[in-house]
UniProtKB/TrEMBL annotation:
This is Prolyl 4-hydroxylase alpha subunit Fe(2+) 2OG dioxygenase domain-containing protein. It comes from marine metagenome. The lineage of its organism: unclassified sequences, metagenomes, ecological metagenomes.
């Protein structure tokens, strides 16, 4: 006798994936040059889901370019709280956020990143330092199909950290350079 198959899912909740472009900003063009230099100069980090050149996870502690970028990302993330919090009188309270990890990645032709998530972080982000329209996008496989977000230089992609994502093989002959990081509550 085969046991009955019981479905646990009553509904699938949709979570936000936010995209903001800060391209065309002369200051960010300068920051991008520093980010690329700092990523290339920092050295290879340990192996992870990323099958490409990856720096260590605390770049914002060592490089001003990462600290500056993380401040911009935090400002962006604060605009999209995943939930609200109030005091006893019902007054909304802002939840302080902080970046605990940030790292650089360089995808050369054939490089990829396996499916993974960043739990227990609250938010994860990916900032595009350098890419073209044909560079491999960021993929979010879901129950209703794969969703992809193409990279553009100067673009921030922000998503709830527990959402699984991956990067297929880079097909372009040039490097695709990104900064990724994780945001936590700072209570």
């Amino acid at each position: 006798m085969n046991p009955a198959i019981i479905s646990w899912d009553y509904f699938t909740e949709k979570f936000p994936v936010k995209v903001r472009s800060i391209e065309g900003n002369a200051n960010m063009e300068v920051v991008n040059r520093f980010l690329e230099r700092d990523i290339r100069d920092s050295g290879q980090g340990a192996l992870s889901a990323a099958k490409c050149y990856r720096t260590h996870w605390k770049m914002h502690k060592s490089y001003d370019s990462f600290a500056l970028l993380n401040n911009a990302v935090l400002d962006f993330a604060k605009k999209f709280p995943l939930a609200t919090h109030t005091d006893e009188e019902g007054t909304p309270k802002e939840i302080p956020l902080k970046v605990l990890e940030s790292w650089g990645l360089i995808y050369s032709k054939g490089d990829s990143t396996d499916l993974h998530s960043h739990w227990p972080a609250l938010w994860s982000y990916c900032y595009c330092v350098k890419a073209c329209e044909k560079c491999v996008p960021l993929y979010f496989p879901t129950l209703d199909g794969d969703h992809e977000v193409p990279h553009k230089t100067g673009q921030i992609i922000l998503w709830p950290a527990w959402i699984s994502h991956e990067v297929y093989k880079q097909e372009c002959d040039h490097d695709r350079i990104v900064v990724s990081g994780n945001i936590y509550t700072d209570l």
